[in-house]
Amino acid sequence: MTIEELIKSSETELSEKFQKADEISEYNQEKVLKAFNKRSIALRHFNATTGYGYGDDGRFMLGEVFADSLGAESGIVSPALLSGTHALTVALFGVLRTGDAVLSVSGMPYDTIRGVIYGEGNGSLKDFGISFDCTPLTKDGKFDKARIQEDISRLGTKLKMVYIQRSRGYELRDAFTIAEIEDICSFVRSLGFKGCIFADNCYGEFVEKYEPCDVGVDVAVGSLIKNPGGGLAPTGGYIVGKNDYIDKIGKRLTAPSIGNEVGSYAYGYRLFYQGLFLAPHTVNQAIKGSLLIGKCMEKLGYENFPNLDKTPSDITRAIRFDTAEQLCAFIQSVQEASPVDSFVTLEPWDMPGYDSKVIMAAGCFVEGASIELSADAPVKEPYTAYFQGGLTYEHCKYALKKMLNKLL
Fold first, then answer.
1. Which residues, other chains included, contact 97 with Cβ-Cβ below 8 Å and sequence gap of 6+?
2. Alpha carbons 188 and 197: distance in angstroms, whole number
């Protein structure tokens, strides 16, 4: 079978899943459009502002449109939130106080947030007297309710936040579905927990019809150079949730005395609004690309997650390789298929925030934008590449041909 025949047969077998992805995209596009209509978004909301940004209606309405689109009461969307990790940090410090305890019910969080949680002398949660416990997942990567109940009971009244990481990070598990998040929210509430349920929503926006805040999460956080920026947002992050939490977080983003009343952006907000509008379609393209790559790799005998019998719950796909050489070749082929810096030969390097060398393909229009075609991996066993993004299905398909040519 030729590469072209492999791809064509895989597309045919995926037709029902592609149709399902289209239905979700159509639903979410309507939801986002209604959010724009509800807030009467006009050209003036795209205007640049300077200085303090008092009365910056574009900034304020951007937060409201994001909140409406993501099932929340209010939101903060800002280019001053430099990454997903930064947005998570601001939100955590906005909600938590010295002596508080946090319980991650989804196991150990992603690498780059660990220094924020456990760092020594760097201004971490630990430095401020905030404890952070983790309940391990079950062997099949699911919430362990029995152990969660034990940990919630053990932490008692100190427990002020239950933390959920929706995506897999560098773990070989599936991203959590909205149904699973709804179930665990109901479960922890049934145990009498009255604090903040907090979700790292990175890579998950618009993959399903509903969002974490629709199903019981109090605060959800993400990056604009992932799903909700639609490939157009040049930087930034978002924090959405219940009004009282967003008010507290705003006082940490700026200053306790001024909160969400200030903030300007001299370059204007059009790309943020337009990126959100395009996000449901862009995510759909990435999901279809992920499914196609997963199907072809599966046919060639490569284990990958999520399994093709499941509907994806985020835009990432983990693919296992036998050797470091195969892993690096796969990542390099993604770079070679990129519109930017395709000529670069990638090498593993000591990337800040990680405990091993990382190889990363990101030939993107926006630096590091993982809604664009990208892939990365820690170069250690098990040799697993984490692939995500793709602004167009056609680009994903082209990149797949590059990958297969190199691997075969």
1. 130, 160
2. 9
Burial class of 309 by CB neighbour count within 10 A (0 to 12, 13 to 18, 19+): exposed
100 Cβ contact list (under 8 Å, min separation 6): 130, 131, 158, 159, 160, 161
Q: What is the 3-state secondary structure (H, E, C) of 202-262?
A: CCCCCCCCCCHHHCCCCEEEEECCCHHHCCCCCCCEEEEECHHHHHHHHHHHCCCCCHHHC
> Would you state the pLDDT for residue 230?
98
Whether 330 contacts 385, CB under 8 Å: yes
Task: Give, in order, the Cα–Cα distances in Å from 38 to each of 65, 68, 69.
Answer: 8, 9, 11
Least confident segment among 218-222, 313-317, 355-359, 367-371: 355-359
Question: SS3 letters for 312-339?
Answer: CCCCEEEEECCCHHHHHHHHHHHHHCCC
pLDDT tens digits, 62-111 = 999 999 999 999 999 999 999 999 999 999 999 999 999 999 999 999 98
* C-alpha of 369 from chain center: 11
Q: Which of 241, 152, 154, 137 is nearest to 196 (CA)?
A: 241
Q: What percent of the chain has pLDDT over 70?
A: 100
Q: For residue 68, what are the β-bridge partners? A: none
Say how many C-beta atoms besides its own lie within 10 A of residue 63's C-beta: 23
3-state SS, residue 42: coil
Q: Is 100:160 a contact under the CB 8 Å cutoff?
A: yes
Sorted by sequence, the CB contacts under 8 Å of residue 41 that are 6+ apart come out as: 61, 65, 273
What is the Cα–Cα distance from 385 to 383, expressed in whole angstroms?
7
3-state secondary structure of 184: helix
For residue 64, give every residue at least 6 positions away whose Cβ sits within 8 Å of its Cβ, in sequence order, or none.
39, 74, 75
8 Å CB contact between 205 and 222? yes
Residue 311 and residue 20: Cα distance in Å, rounded?
9
Within 13 Å of residue 263, how many CA atoms lie on the same side as its CB? 24
CA distance 391 to 230: 8
According to DSSP, residue 43 is labeled: G
Is the CB of residue 46 less than 8 Å from the CB of residue 270? yes
CB 162 within 8 A of CB 191: no
How large is the average pLDDT for residues 246-250? 98
CA–CA distance, 265 with 253 (Å, rounded to integer): 15
